[in-house]
Amino acid sequence: MLTFTPSGIYCPPGGFYIDPWKPVEKAVITHAHSDHARWGSNHYLCHPDTAPLLHLRLGPVDVQSLDWGEQLDINGVRVSLHPAGHIIGSSQVRVEHKGEVWVVSGDYKVVPDGISGPFEPVSCHHFITESTFGLPIYQWEDQEIIYQQIRQWVLDNQAAGYSSVLLAYSLGKAQRVISCLAPLQQPIYAHGAIANVQETLIQAGWNLTPVARVPVEPNRNQLKGSIVVAPPSADGSSWLKKFGPVKVAVCSGWMQVRGNARRRNVDAGFVLSDHADWNGLKTAVKATGASAVYVTHGFQAAFSRYLTEQGIEAQEIQTDYGTEEQE
Amino acid sequence: MRLFAELVQQLGSSTKTNDKLAALLRYFETAPEADTIWVIALFTGRRPKRTVSSTYLREWCIEQTGLPAWLFEESYHTVGDLAETIALLLPPPTNESSHSLQAYLEALQALSDQEVEAKKTFVLQAWDELNREERFVFNKLITGGFRIGVSQQLLVQALAKLVQLEQSQVAYLISGQWDPRQTSLQQLLDSSFAATDFSKPYPFYLCYPIEGVLAELGNPADWQAEWKWDGIRGQLIKRNGELFVWSRGEELITEKFPEYQGLLEALPDGLVLDGEILPFMEGKPMPFALLQTRIGRKNITKKQLEAAPIHFFAYDLLEWEGTDWRDQPLEQRRSKLEALVAQVQHPKLLLSPMVIFNTWEELAELRSRSREFVAEGIMLKKKDSVYQVGRKRGDWWKWKTDPMTIDAVLIYAQKGHGRRSNLYTDYTFAVRKEDKLLAFTKAYSGLTDKELLEVDAFVKRNALEKFGPVRTVPAELVFEIAFEGIAASSRHKSGVALRFPRILRWRKDKTVQDINTLEDLQQLLQQFGNDKAD
Ligand SMILES: [Zn+2]
Ligand SMILES: [Zn+2]
């Protein structure tokens, strides 16, 4: 019922696409990351929590929203959304037609992070899964342990007279890092990209910690030893100079491997991911009970071969997702 | 072990030398002395003998995790380091506890004459009591190679601070032959103890790559120029009636070069020479590839001795009649050296000749002809310089020749080792052979992050075929490949092997029509290579 076309995942009977990477007439969107929610389509369908983020990203586009578990009939195809636990509003898309059920995972993680909603396993015949961290070397520690490490790192930096810069992707990771830092009861300075997302979400009714905007002309030493959250692209920018001597950390699942951390040339790497780890991917696939699995962006070759050897028919699918580093 | 694991983690992640120094000092101040002596040994390359093979480590990890072997290999390929791969794959420890670094190292040594089963029991038990960071260093102790961003110089600096000695003295004390199992920290860093070790070399003084323009160096008459040979930098020592040869890597390699034994009779006692170990025939040094055939072999055949007759090209004199001459100006050391070589008159001991020049322009012209002399470039040494320790700016400079280059097209790509694990960063390049393409080298580094992402996207979008982890791509992207040397090779389809190949730049201005041909490579080989590399 779903096919893989040059424009993206397409549903012929329903006449709509899911997370298309080319402009189409009707697009169902799993979540607001830019590789999944692309510019140029005429109509978008997504979860109500994704809608304001879509507007923030894409401007005034036509968005229809659908709550988790609510059903919508599109040309005889029954469409519903289910929490994916990846970022705020992130959803799996379930489509049903003539008794056949497909689920498109989008990006997901199975362990709740306290913000993005708990992942819900959805039974289906065909499951399209991501595989960003589809190798057994990726096994995450508990969020609370990492959070403690981050807070300790910040306090150590302050004791030594440094500001702490945490590099985190502006939508998703940044909200988690900010909530991790909130118990320190200090102003959290955010780069514009992150402040925009945070304010949009607070306006939409989310109970999130507000961030401090950076003063245009700070007094000398005013920002020394402060806490800063910035997108990875801000690393090495002159914007960071305002904060005096800094220590920089990357918060990303890629930090699991030393070589990656070294290559980023930062002072610390915290393994914090919005994607399922190896065990998470395996659990999620098994829980769907799907007899056919399609593996997209990530380690698709390894993960699909592994599933096949475990008796689950799986194949790898080339997509345009995951081209940017917004893990 | 926890302290040591933390140290390794800090050294690996800190980007500033001062932070590394602070981490080392903190470690030395808090760790037990018995562990400290091992850390000095490990960080100066005195790795204990390997008692467990990595094949077994692999096997046991696969067994413990229940993963298919191919998935282990795939993981290893992504991580790029066996010790780390295993540390990441193993299930969490069930019996957490940690012994001292010394305890693990000595237990590992004690395994050397044990059965495989005993080794396995020990390794599995250690895995089950160590956390992820500790497991990584534990595995590293077995597989070796603690290359974690600590230079010998930094270690020396930390120790010098710790024991309040001059850095040059510490560097000398920790060099040479000593066994961490039989040496206490006090013995190691006590100069009266060191005096009894006759083999002890001096720490090498290394040239710094030249920066800026030559004219800034001032008057050419203040400088001595020499060819920079492409051999093994070494020290030749005769003390107490014995001859010792050390490599720059602080390896005692006396046995590897039996041709030097003739010098034992000829040289005076209490002598240390600094120079280059180099094969030499018919008045000319021979390419490095030939020397390579001699390193790493236990037994040297007569044929090898004849094919690569090793000589010692003396640069400098560091000790004379048992007295340390390193504080004398270079000019004086050199004239003593010249007198010595002339007097000894041994065919294996040659004086590395000075390059005579009057102006910087003349020197630049000579440097551009380095390859004709089978040299890598030029070394410039201040005539009044003392012999320092390590790589220092100011008095000694090296000025290498520009690398050879070839324009080639990308034909295969593979995901990187230990780099951003999900990116295609390892490339194979081809030159043209008549109307076909011929793969001739791999190259990894040299692109900017942005370019890497661009090439990665190209590979992901255009991959034609796959062979395991390798992707074939359309021959479209042209790169300029630089390399330091070229040798004939029967193991390569192209018939040539390159030394230190790397990507110099992406030639977006060129198409596959513009790349170099196999004949171009063969011409370089004729000009600069040798014809019996392997
Ligand atoms: Zn995403
Ligand atoms: Zn994605």
Automatic annotation (TrEMBL), chain A:
InterPro entries: MBL, RibonucZ/Hydroxyglut_hydro, Xnuc_lig_assoc
Claim: Flavoprotein is one of the keywords in the record: no
Keyword list, A-Z: Exonuclease, Hydrolase, Ligase, Nuclease
EC top class, as a word: hydrolase
Signal peptide span: none
Gene Ontology molecular-function annotations: exonuclease activity; ligase activity
Protein's name according to its UniProt entry: Ligase-associated DNA damage response exonuclease
